[in-house]
Amino acid sequence: MDTSADHHIHSTYNDHSDSDLTIRNVIDIAENRGLRKIAFTEHVRRTSDWIPKYLAEIQIYSKNSSLEIISGFEAKILSNGSIDCPYEYQSKYFLIASFHTIFGNKECWINALKSAIRDPTVDVIGHLAPEPGFKISAPEIDSIAEEIVQNQKVVELNSKYRRPPLDWITSFKGRGVKFHLGSDAHSLRSVGCFENINHLIAAADRSV
C-alpha cells in the first residue's frame, strides 16, 4: 500500500474543517511530510455554488508544488443510488461516493451502494461499512466485492473512521478488489497519517 499518497483530504470549503485547513496549508504540510500525491475531495452537493472558486484555488497552488495534486469531490450516496454532485463536475473530476445518511433499511442500503458502484462517474467508494442497525452477511459482502471488481472501482482504507471492517477487506482482497489510502482529513494533523489503520493496511497488503 502506497503510504505516500493520500486520496481523501478536505479543506475550508466546508463548515466543519479546522480553520487553518486551507488548500495552501494542506499542500505545504503534505510536502513537508514527504507525500508524493494528494487528492482534494471536498464535500459537495448538487446545490454547491463554491465549486469554481475551489477548483481555481487548487490549480493556483498546484503550479509551484512538487506533489501530484488531484482535484475532486466527496459526494453522498442518496437512497435511490444517485450521487449528490452536479453532473457536470461529477463526470469530469475525481469522485468519492460515500454514505453520510442512515437509511435504516438494509435492502435500500445495498441497492444504493450497488447503484453507486455501477455509476461510471464514480472512482472510489469511501469509508465503506454497514449501518449500525444491520449486518451484512458473507455472501452479501462477496456480492458487493464482485460489483466493485466488475465496475473497476477502488475501495478506500479510511483512517478517520478505520474502515472498511477487517473481514470485508479479507473478502475483498480475495476477489481482487483494489484499495488505496485516504485520511479523510478535516485538520492539518491528519493529512497523510495512517498509523491508526496499520492492521487494515496489513490485511490489504497480505498475499491471498
List the helices and strands and how they pair.
Layout: E1 5-9, H1 23-32, E2 37-44, H2 51-62, E3 68-76, H3 87-90, E4 94-98, H4 106-118, E5 124-125, H5 138-150, E6 154-158, H6 166-174, E7 178-182, H7 198-205
Helix pairs in contact: 6-7
SSE order: EHEHEHEHEHEHEH
How many individual domains?
A: 1
Terminal Cα span:
15 Å
Proportion of residues in β-strands: 15-25%
What is the CATH first-level class name?
Answer: Alpha Beta
CATH hierarchy: architecture: Alpha-Beta Barrel
Broad structural category: alpha/beta
Largest beta sheet: strand ordering? 1-2-3-4-5-6-7
Poorly predicted parts = none
- The CATH superfamily label reads Metal-dependent hydrolases
Largest sheet: number of strands, sense, barrel closure: 7 strands, parallel
Indicate the mean pLDDT. Answer: 97
- The DSSP helix count reads 7
- Roughly how many Å is the radius of gyration? 16 Å
Shape descriptor reads globular
Provide the CATH topology. TIM Barrel
What percent of residues adopt helix (DSSP H or I)?
Answer: 25-40%
Record field, number of beta strands: 7
